[in-house]
Amino acid sequence: MSYQATIIISSLIFSAFFSGMEIAFISSNKIQLEIEKKQKGFLSRLLKKITQNPSKFIATMLIGNNIALVIYGLYMGDFLINLFSTLIPTKYPIIDYFLVELNLFTQTIFSSIVILITAEFLPKVFFQIYSNTLVKLFAFPAYFFYVIFSFLSSFVIKISDFVLKKYLSTSKDNIKSVFSKVDLENYINEQMENVDENDQIDNEIVIFQNALEFSEVRAKEVMVPRTELSSIEIHDSINNLSDLFTRTGHSKIIVYKNTIDDILGYVHAFDLFKNPKSIKSIMMPVKFVPETMLAKDVLNFLTKKRRSLAVVLDEYGGTSGILTIEDIVEELFGEIEDEHDTADLIEQVLENNTFLFSARLEVDYVNENYKLQLPTSENYETIGGLIVFNTETIPSKKESIKIGDFEFIVEKVSNTKIELVTLKIISN
Questions:
Q1: Which CATH architecture has domain 343-425?
Q2: Cis omega (within 30 of 0) for bond into 89
């Protein structure tokens, strides 16, 4: 009995190993594996050998798993027969019926439950969660079986390739190492999680992360809002335009007719050296884009039109803000200081669970850097937007607003926007 039990347990362990390594290899981050393979050492050489032919590796794991299951079935059957004979007769006729009349059925059900739990479900879940780590950890035994079953796995692959080509008119099953966006995203997220709060993140990692998120960024998220625009009416004087350039320090001034919702173009500070007679004579045309348009599409649009600035329109056709190529590039390469970035955004930790924030800080940024869980939505991007979205109005100075587990106290506000708030976490 002990001999049978040893073989059964061993076959279950081998089956768990083979099925686990199969799913671990499929679920592993291919970029991280490639990086490991480029390193020097015994482990990297093993990884190169077992991953150079993915189809053969998977076939090897399947063959090993099937052999383990066959051995398990043979010995488990004898084990259950002996076990059932010792239990008969029981106090319950229904149990005796299953153990005698439906002996094979009972064996099948019992054996299947054991193999599914111990050698299929649990190991596959575990190996999938820690796929890259376990592929490296069990690289040596995997390579051992890779060599042992090499002839058999090659034979199986040749047969499958013949069947695919002969009867299904498809090419042979060759799996190539192709890195997907998901692989890159998972790898970068792992790197970000392993970085301590006080450590500086490599610029390359930041750029890759920004590039992955760039495809989902919309014009509304990167534009300069209308409340921060410097603008002038088209019929205004050149002297007033010059004063506006001097007062704001901006290099570009938006030109409108009657209201800011009717933008005609913009003027550049350099054009003042031409001694213009009117604003219209030096005005440059602008392009218009909806605020829901993807930033990457705006970039392509401005590049094709050879323009550097676009006016972002809201759903009603009014001016929502402006967007420059520089603003879009910042999403990829980080902040580039310009005339709209001269005012430093305030972010201070006053005490435990209390913060002082500029209302222009993005909600996602605050959540990530201060480990908060401020509610997010497509309807707003900033803390100020969060407050206005919930209050449906611009609150007064020192007004307190409770949103979920957070209390916002408005410290500074103008007629058009919230500028500074105190954030407190409400204890439950």
A1: 2-Layer Sandwich (3.30)
A2: yes
